[in-house]
Design goal:
By secondary structure, the chain is an alpha+beta fold. The protein contains 14 helices and 7 strands. The protein has a 5-stranded mixed sheet, covered by helices on one side. It is rod-shaped and about 140 Å long. The relative contact order is 0.06. The structure holds adenosine-5'-diphosphate. The site of adenosine-5'-diphosphate has 20 residues, from helix 11, helix 13 and helix 14. Adenosine-5'-diphosphate binds next to helix 11, helix 13 and helix 14.
C-alpha cells in the first residue's frame, strides 16, 4: 500500500513539476495527507486561472445587451447594481488569475469561489429584476441568464469543482425566495424551469470535473510510466557499459596471462623435445622417452590454446592488426585443405573442393584467411564420422564478393546450441559428450576475423544431417582487372 501511495505521490509531484517548475514544487508541503490532491489542485487552479479572460469576455458579451435593454425601459435598480457586482467579481477574478501562485492554494481557491459567488449574486439580481414591484420578472431574464451563464461556465469554470455552483446558487436562492415570498408574482412554471436548468448544469459541471480529474490521473500515470522507462533505459545503458568494460578487462587479462604463459611453455617444449630426441644421451628407462613425447604434445596443445586465447583477446580488445595484401582466396583455401588432407584421410573422411576458376584476387590478411579456413576445416573433420564427406566451395557471392563454404555430413548442431557455440569458450553438447579436443574458441575467432574484414559469417545446421558454415568477404575487397595495377590502399584499422 505504502509503495503504491509513494508512487502516486511521485506521479503527482511530477505533474506539478511539469506545470510549475521545481521551485514551486520544492515549496510545497509533502506528506501523505497532501499527496495527489495538491498536485492536481495546483494544475486545476492553473487551468481555471488561464480560462478567466475568456470567461470574462463571455459574461461581458451577455451583460451588454441587458444593459442596453434596461437603458430604454423604466429604471430598474437591480440591473445596474447587479452589473456592478458582476463587474467587481470579474475584475477581482482577473487580477487573481495573474497572482494566484502568491497565495496559499486553499486561499486562492476560496478567493476564486468568492468572486464567482459575487458574479452569481449580480446575475441573480438581474434575473429577478421586474419592471414594477408587483409584476413578475422578465421571463427572458429568468431563463436566459441561468442558461447562458451555465453554458459559458461549463466550458471555462469546470476546472474548479463548485465554481459553477457558486455562480448559479445565488440565482437558485433568488428563484426560491421569489417563489416563497411572492407566490402570486412568480410565474411558477418559468421559475421551475430555471431551477431545473440550474440543477442540470450543476450535474454536468460535476461530471466534467470528474472527467478532468480522470484525465489528469491518466496523464500522471503516463508520465510516471515514461519516467520508469527512462530509468530502466538508463540502467540498461549503465549495465551495458559495465559489461563492455568487464569484457575489455577480461580480454586484457587473458592477453597478459597468455603472454606470460608462453615463456615457460617454450622452455617445456624445448627441453621435452631434447629429451624425446635423447640428444644428451639415451634414457635408461624406455618409458621416459614416451613421457617426454607426451609432455611435448601436451605442451604444443597448450600453446595452440594460448595462441587462440591471445588471438581472440586481441580481436575483442581491438588490438588485432590486419596485414592486408593482395592474395587469392582459392589458393589459401587449397593450401589449408592440402594441409589437413592427411588428417581427414586418417579419420576416413572424404574432402572435396570446388573452386570458381575465374575468381579475381582480393585484398585481405592471408594469415587470417588461413586461420579461418583451418578452423572451419578442422571442425568439420573433427565432428564428421568415418565415411562422411566434407565439401569446400570457393566462389563469387551474389553481391560481388567472394565466399568460402565448408559443408559436412556430420551430426549437426541443435538449433538452441548455435548461440552458445558462437560465444567464447562455448562448446556443443556433442563435443562434450564425445570428449573431442577443443577450447570453444575456433568459431568466435573466425567470426571476429571475418568481421574485421567487413565480411559476413553464417552457420546452417540440421541435427543428423550436417553443418554448413559460410563466410563472405565484401565486394570492395575484390580486385578487378582494371584495378590490378593500382596501388593497394586499404583501411588497416582494427575493428572493435
Ligand atoms: P572447438 O575448438 O571446441 O571446436 P569451436 O568454436 O570451433 O571450438 O566450436 C565450438 C563448438 O561448435 C564445438 O565444440 C562443436 O560442438 C560445435 N561445432 C563446430 N563445428 C561443428 C561441425 N562442423 N559439426 C558439428 N559441431 C560443430
Amino acid at each position: 500500500m505504502i509503495p503504491e501511495l509513494n508512487r502516486l505521490m511521485a506521479q503527482s509531484r511530477r505533474v506539478t513539476q511539469l506545470a510549475f517548475g521545481m521551485d514551486r514544487v520544492a515549496a510545497m508541503p509533502s506528506g501523505l495527507a497532501n499527496w495527489t490532491a495538491r498536485g492536481f489542485d495546483d494544475e486545476l487552479l492553473m487551468t481555471f486561472a488561464r480560462a478567466r479572460p475568456k470567461a470574462i469576455l463571455l459574461q461581458l458579451l451577455m451583460l451588454m445587451p441587458i444593459l442596453g435593454i434596461s437603458a430604454f425601459s423604466p429604471p430598474l435598480l437591480p440591473i445596474p447594481f447587479g452589473a456592478f457586482l458582476i463587474g467587481l467579481g470579474l475584475a477581482a477574478s482577473l487580477i487573481l488569475a495573474d497572482h494566484w501562485p502568491k497565495f496559499r492554494q486553499l486561499t486562492a481557491k476560496l478567493l476564486f469561489l468568492g468572486f464567482e459567488a459575487l458574479q452569481g449574486t449580480g446575475w441573480a439580481l438581474i434575473s429577478q429584476a421586474s419592471p414594477a414591484p408587483d409584476t413578475i420578472p422578465d421571463i427572458a431574464f429568468l431563463v436566459f441568464i441561468p442558461v447562458a451563464l451555465g453554458g459559458s461556465s461549463l466550458v471555462f469554470s469546470s476546472a474548479i469543482r463548485g465554481a459553477l455552483g457558486f455562480q448559479l446558487l445565488p440565482i437558485l436562492i433568488g428563484d426560491l425566495i421569489l417563489m416563497s415570498l411572492f407566490p402570486e408574482r412568480a410565474a411558477t412554471d418559468t421559475v421551475y424551469l430555471s431551477i431545473v436548468l440550474i440543477g442540470f448544469f450543476l450535474y454536468l459541471a460535476g461530471r466534467i470535473s470528474e472527467t478532468t480529474l480522470d484525465h489528469l490521473t491518466i496523464r500522471a500515470e503516463k508520465d510516471a510510466l515514461i519516467a520508469d522507462l527512462e530509468q530502466a533505459k538508463a540502467h540498461s545503458d549503465e549495465a551495458r557499459r559495465r559489461a563492455e568494460e568487464l569484457n575489455l578487462a577480461k580480454s586484457r587479462f587473458l592477453a597478459t596471462m597468455s603472454h606470460e604463459l608462453r615463456t615457460p611453455l617454450n622452455a617445456i617444449l624445448g627441453f621435452s623435445e631434447v629429451m624425446e630426441a635423447e640428444l644428451l644421451g639415451r634414457h635408461r628407462v624406455k618409458a621416459y622417452r614416451a613421457y617426454a613425447r607426451d609432455i611435448h604434445e601436451s605442451g604444443q596443445m597448450l600453446l595452440g590454446i594460448i595462441d587462440e586465447v591471445l588471438d581472440l583477446s586481441r580481436i575483442e580488445a581491438g588490438r588485432y592488426e590486419l596485414e592486408e595484401q593482395k592474395c587469392h582466396l582459392a589458393d589459401s583455401v587449397s593450401e589449408c585443405a592440402h594441409l589437413l588432407q592427411l588428417r581427414a584421410h586418417s579419420r576416413g573422411v572424404i574432402m572435396m573442393m570446388t573452386v570458381d576458376p575465374e575468381l579475381e584476387a582480393i585484398v585481405a590478411d592471408e594469415r587470417a584467411l588461413r586461420q579461418i579456413t583451418l578452423n572451419l576445416l578442422s571442425n568439420a573433420i573433427k565432428f564428421t564420422p568415418a565415411g562422411g564427406e566434407i565439401s569446400i566451395v570457393v566462389g563469387r557471392s551474389p553481391m560481388g564478393g567472394q565466399f568460402i563454404q565448408v559443408t559436412d555430413t556430420g551430426p549437426g548442431i541443435p538449433a538452441h546450441e548455435i548461440p552458445i557455440i558462437l560465444e567464447s569458450f562455448g562448446r556443443g553438447s556433442l563435443a562434450v559428450k564425445t570428449a573431442e579436443q577443443g577450447s570453444g574458441l575456433g568459431l568466435p575467432i573466425v567470426r571476429g576475423l571475418v568481421a574485421m574484414h567487413g565480411g559476413e559469417f553464417s552457420i546452417q545446421s540440421r541435427e543428423g544431417e550436417g553443418t554448413s558454415v559460410t563466410i563472405t568477404l565484401p565486394a570492395h575487397r575484390v580486385i578487378h582487372y582494371s584495378d590490378e595495377h593500382a596501388p593497394i590502399e586499404m583501411d588497416n584499422r582494427v575493428a572493435a
